[in-house]
Amino acid sequence: MGVEEEFLLVTPEGRPEPVATTVLRHASAVEQSSPDEPGGDLEKEFKQEQIETSTPPRADLTELAAEIRAGRARADALARRAGARIAALAAAPQVVESTVLPDRRAYAIRAEFGRTAQDQLTCGCHVHVSIDDPDEGVRILDHLRPWNAVLLALSGNSPSWQGSATGYASYRSQVWGRWPTAGPTAPFGDAAGYRSVVDELLRTGAILDEGMVYFDARLSSRYPTVEVRVADVCLDAEDAALQAALVRGLAEAAMGEPMRQPRTELLRAATWRAARSGLTGDLVSPLTGTPLPAAEVVGQLVEHVRPALAAAGDLEWVERHVATVLRRGNGAIQQLGWRAQGADDDEVVRRAVDRTLAG
Asked: Is the pTM of this model over 0.70?
């Protein structure tokens, strides 16, 4: 499993700063990818105010958590060379007119998608788990469908947008959902069914290329993995590791009894519920399709993947960290707590910088 994280680039005062090109130039001078495994380098994103890290693939959860922390520290050190810092916020709280990278594909997306592209200064957390073949990958994608909303609720970290409180734990997911392919999908059945859907989407002309297949979870076009893209970037590094452990558990659980497959309309409603209230209200239970307290639904997820977590040696860590998240709250709850203490937009970002690099 591996984790990709997108971060805001901000000034020391806490304002988003369009310096990605400079940061990447510094990175290219000092970073060297391993020829034996992917990940480990800093990568470009869509906007000048953001950057992406990726871990090498790891089987051990403790090692993966260490790679996540190391990637954050490395990205921040390189950002400092451009006079900036990194912040693990899924959306900037301030009013921002973001700028696309000086890149032909980025310019084409901006021209084609207008305001949707202009608004996309959002940061997510993507988890990759390895697969033997595309058919196994599609079996995992179909199994993940009812649980993706719970992963979103655990990660919610964008309660503010363009200078206003939104009332959402994850407003990033609402902004991201404007893309033509974003969100939950119907069951694909097998690799041929998945490929057929992607090919038909490309034929519509509504997306420029396969890289714009923005499903909540998809087959990676770069690696032999399933890529789960539903989560906000997590304020705390260990929360990102938790996402990876749960996704791997769900991938292993997919090899057992099939899950019931709700209609996509119901999954959209469950995803909206998770984005709106996160961990502070009800979530839609994947087992019953009815609302239950968030902590109870998160418990259902842990119970569902318990055998896989135990087999991987992850169970004790996951149970302990789930309890921490439910007690402490996700990033949205932490941000709202800072607001209650009197923090303004810039102070929220400065505190987020500290949390991003904690531990």
From this structure: yes
